Amino acid sequence: MRSFVMLLALTVLAFAVSLTDHFTSPPIEVLVTRTDQWVFCQNYGVTIQIKAMEPVTVNKVEVIAKFYPEAR
Length: 72
Description:
Blueprint (H helix, E strand, L loop, with lengths): L1 H14 L2 E8 L2 E8 L10 E7 L20
Antiparallel strand pairs: 1-2, 2-3
């Protein structure tokens, strides 16, 4: 049973697709890359890239992550 659960988790991770969200609000451009699925008690990777399109001064960067259950 334990090996079945592990195999199932690995299969789900293998089929997870990377998604990229792109936001532009000059002078800042933000790319957020993540997978389309997460597995309970497993690491979930999110990469945030922030690029200035012209010289800017950044006083604060705040990241808020919210996870919502899927509608059934």
